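Saturday, quiet lab. Running sequence design on the structure tokens for the scaffold JK sent over.
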């Protein structure tokens, strides 16, 4: 599935720091949109132009995952011979476990012992029940709706590392880093291409005869992990939970049968429908996917992709290269850099139609 001899360096490029967006465009649909269709030609448009760009009968596939306020800051208190000591503990929830506990990145993990409790405030406390060298397992005092409410009070949005390094998350991010159709809680990163849509744009697309299908992929923190191998075929993708319902599969199959185009909004939606289409046709699917789409991959379901501009040397650069071809993607990114498009999660978007 991989082109011969491809290495990590094949997906590298120089990105000026000032092109990394730390706030989104307002309104959402005012973001710029690079349109690349076929083998040549690039158009500079805006997301609000989508109703004029897409065709009646096209179908957009939307990821309806909801980002949880997964970043927590708390205090560990420990009593000893010299009295009580405290340590500030930062935790980022990575995902729930079958036993009701949560996997979490914890800093500094070395200051927390098994059995100790961290008070995150707002009525939310958690006990460290297991750990390894990289992360810990937390058991929270609350469960169900009580946990959701306490997490919403105590947590903040888990902004990507390249934004969090520049500023702390704030109340604006609770809206900005969430899609307008977010429904099923579980993601610790947003499906960022979807952040460009607002209700007026959705209404205009529907009036144009564009269909919508919702699927769910809970985006994990692994989406930000760097590729650490030189040969890309040696990379192992992180797994993320997703679901394509029977209704979604029927809608997508009907659109394809009517010769409409299936356009995934975001790489998460694309990876999910391609997972559900591994038999050569779309079907209901539920579980964890670690599909790695890279040059040489043959697409089964999607005809196109709307996506933001990605990190150098990332698996997402490999995915768009699989869709459009490596030379075409180099030209697209050269154009985006020359025209000073805004990059990454809060940046501008591209519409890629091979």
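Result came back. Writing it out in full:
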């Amino acid at each position: 599935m991989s082109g011969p001899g491809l290495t990590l360096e094949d997906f590298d490029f120089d990105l000026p720091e000032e092109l990394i967006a730390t706030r989104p465009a307002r309104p959402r649909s005012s973001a710029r949109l690079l349109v690349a269709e076929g083998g040549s030609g690039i158009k500079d448009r805006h997301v609000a132009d989508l109703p004029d760009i897409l065709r009646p009968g096209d179908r957009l596939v939307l990821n309806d995952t909801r980002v949880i306020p997964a970043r927590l800051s708390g205090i560990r208190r420990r009593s000893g011979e010299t009295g009580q000591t405290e340590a500030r503990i930062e935790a980022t929830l990575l995902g729930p476990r079958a036993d009701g506990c949560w996997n979490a990145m914890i800093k500094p993990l070395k200051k927390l012992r098994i059995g100790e409790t961290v008070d995150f405030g707002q009525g939310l406390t958690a006990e460290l029940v297991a750990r390894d060298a990289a992360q810990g397992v937390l058991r929270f005092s609350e469960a169900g709706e009580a946990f959701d409410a306490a997490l919403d009070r105590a947590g903040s949005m888990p902004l990507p590392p390249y934004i969090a390094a520049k500023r702390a998350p704030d109340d604006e991010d609770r809206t900005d880093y969430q899609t307008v159709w977010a429904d099923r809680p579980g993601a610790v990163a947003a499906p960022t291409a979807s952040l460009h849509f607002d209700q007026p744009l959705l209404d205009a697309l529907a009036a144009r005869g564009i269909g919508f299908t919702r699927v769910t992929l809970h985006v994990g923190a692994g989406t930000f992990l760097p590729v650490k191998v030189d040969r890309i075929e040696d990379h192992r993708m992180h797994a993320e939970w997703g679901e394509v319902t029977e209704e979604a599969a029927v809608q997508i199959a009907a659109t394809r049968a009517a010769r409409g185009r299936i356009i995934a909004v975001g790489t998460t939606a694309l990876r999910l429908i391609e997972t559900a289409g591994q038999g050569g046709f779309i079907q209901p699917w539920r579980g964890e996917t670690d599909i790695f789409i890279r040059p040489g991959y043959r697409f089964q379901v999607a005809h196109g992709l709307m996506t933001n501009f990605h990190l150098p040397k990332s698996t997402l650069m490999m995915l768009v290269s699989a869709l459009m071809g490596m030379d075409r993607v180099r030209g697209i990114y050269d154009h985006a850099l020359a025209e000073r498009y805004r990059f990454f999660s809060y940046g501008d978007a591209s519409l890629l139609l091979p």
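Notes for JK: The longest helix spans residues 326-338. The two ends are 18 Å apart (CA to CA). Ask whether to fix the surface positions before the next round.
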